[in-house]
Design a protein that fits this description.
By secondary structure, this protein is α/β, with parallel strands linked by helices. The protein has nine helices and eight strands. It starts with a helix and ends with a helix.
């Protein structure tokens, strides 16, 4: 659906293995690479197969290219639940974390902010950068749902968690971003903002326990607010599982980023 909606999208190149190893344990990646058949992988909410390694390299490679060029990486599998040593929540490799570490190691970017508006907390991204004062992680998400992390005050000095009650819509999400995320990013003064762009807080999503009512306009405004917080901004697709609405929501976010 996304490829049909965005015919001008270009195909990305696979990430080099060393890019993934800046984030994930060598032993974990080797198990993923050596998979020979489909099955549960790491937890009872994530499946991987013999093609997953190639898919992960391509997704991470697209995230890297997006970070380098200021683009939006349309990738699957998503990544923000993947921890340094494990898979969770459909996520095998933490794409946005790989892109951030690549930008630091290869391009010398010193300060990066990762802004996450997926309805689920990005526990994996938080784990990767917890205690690292060169990366700010800020997340808006629904309280009390998977993966059960992301309480206010959780994490170190460069972690900003903003849990939202069920039933919130555009006004509440934008107000939370304005009151909590924007001041934190302004104080941090990043050279690069990477957005974990999840669209599963949309009013037409139908996910277990998710009760959010963000509209197309809400995602457009969140993207626009992200776009002015650093000299360079890029985005990586996370959640969003309604195939009818997802292309439209990505288009709205792209309008905001522009």
């Amino acid at each position: 659906m996304l490829l049909q909606a965005f015919p001008d999208a270009r195909e990305g190149a696979p990430a080099p293995r060393e890019a993934l190893e800046r984030v994930h344990a060598h032993e974990y990646l080797k198990v993923l690479e050596d998979l020979a058949e489909p099955g549960w992988f790491g937890s009872q909410d994530t499946i991987a197969s013999e093609t997953s390694w190639e898919a992960c390299l391509l997704a991470a490679g697209c995230a890297i290219e997006a970070a380098e060029t200021g683009a939006f990486a349309l990738v699957r599998p998503p990544g923000h639940h993947a921890t340094p040593s494990g898979a969770m929540g459909f996520c095998l490799v933490n794409n946005v974390a790989v892109a951030a570490r690549h930008m630091q190691a290869v391009h010398g970017v010193e300060r990066i902010a990762i802004l996450d508006f997926d309805v689920h907390h990005g526990n994996g991204t938080q784990d990767v950068f917890d205690g690292d004062d060169s990366v700010l992680y800020a997340s808006l998400h629904q309280v009390g749902i998977y993966p059960g992390t992301g309480a206010r005050g959780e994490g170190g000095a460069t972690t900003v968690n903003v849990p939202l009650r069920p039933g919130c819509g555009d006004a509440e999400w934008v107000r939370a971003f304005e009151q909590h995320v924007e001041p934190a990013v302004s104080r941090f003064r990043p050279e690069l903002v990477l957005v974990s762009a999840g669209f599963d807080a949309h009013e037409d999503e139908d996910l277990y326990l998710v009760d959010m009512h963000v509209t197309d306009d809400g995602f457009r405004e969140l993207a626009q607010r992200c776009s002015v917080l650093a000299p360079r901004v890029a985005a990586v697709l996370e959640g969003g599982y309604n195939l009818e609405t997802l292309p439209r929501l990505v288009a709205a976010a792209l309008e905001g980023f522009d």
